[in-house]
Design goal:
This protein has eight helices and eight strands; from the N terminus they run ααββαβαββαβαββαα. The chain is an alpha/beta fold. Strands 1-2-5 form a three-stranded mixed beta sheet. A three-stranded parallel beta sheet has the order 4-3-6. A two-stranded antiparallel ribbon has the order 7-8. The longest helix has 19 residues. It binds 6-(benzylamino)pyridine-3-carboxamide. 6-(benzylamino)pyridine-3-carboxamide binds next to strand 3 and strand 5.
Length: 212
């Protein structure tokens, strides 16, 4: 799955620019038993399986550098947001650990000094899609990766507001017109309209972004 994502055009451009390098490793390659077991039954009983500590330790230790930041994808984690994407885009080395099953042996988090990160309040079968979300959000912030310079900066969430509505040609489509102000050429009025629309949308859809 990750190799598919890393083969996507924005990722390829980023790699081509030398802005980032990727490496995927398979936890099963760090097991020692015949069945290449990465999970086991939970101590204390109960349903589901738990990711064993050793394959994860071995895998991470095979790639970690002194400055590496280690993230564990988990619904129990700190919530990923644009602010963290910005933070990670300044890191030298990020390692994303994608677990399966119900959970990961707690000693992995402590022993590897790993941070648990969640992309939202839902449970997926594994951490690969959350890791891909983080990679995408971070890579597009790297210098030169997005077409227009600064394009990543002037957008939704950089000032804690939702984005304003956008329009392109034609001026009228199926009876729906482009707001007059956007055709006016009055850049001051356009800026004010966009800001007011962004605020109105944020108030309606995401009042949490304005309030607390
Ligand atoms: N919301 C997320 C991350 C992982 C995941 C898993 C413990 C489950 C959702 C550790 C439980 C890993 C998220 C795998 N689902 N599933 O970011």
């Amino acid at each position: 799955m990750l190799d598919g994502i890393f083969g996507e055009s924005m990722m390829k451009r980023a790699v081509g620019l030398g802005a980032v390098t990727f490496r995927t490793i398979d936890l099963r390659d760090f097991t020692t038993d015949k069945h290449r077991t990465t999970d086991d039954r939970p101590y204390g009983g109960g349903p589901g399986m738990v990711m064993k500590a050793d394959p994860i330790f071995q895998a991470v230790e095979s790639v970690r550098t002194p400055h590496a930041r280690i993230l564990l994808m988990s619904p129990q984690g700190r919530r990923f947001a644009q602010s963290m994407a910005r933070e990670l885009s300044a890191e030298q080395h990020v390692i994303l650990v994608c677990g399966h099953y119900e959970g990961i042996d707690e000693r992995v988090k402590i022993g590897l000094n790993a941070e648990e990160v969640s992309i939202g309040d839902y449970v997926l079968t594994n951490g690969v899609l959350p890791a891909a979300v983080i990679v995408d959000a971070v890579v597009r912030l790297l210098p030169g990766v997005l077409g227009g310079e600064g394009a990543a900066e002037q957008e939704s969430f950089t000032e804690n507001l939702l984005d304003c509505p956008h329009y392109t040609r034609p001026e009228e489509y199926r009876g729906m017109k482009v707001p007059e102000v956007l055709l006016s050429g009055d850049h001051g009025a356009i800026r004010k309209w966009r800001e007011a629309e962004a605020r109105r949308r944020t108030q309606n859809r995401r009042p949490d972004l304005l309030g607390d």
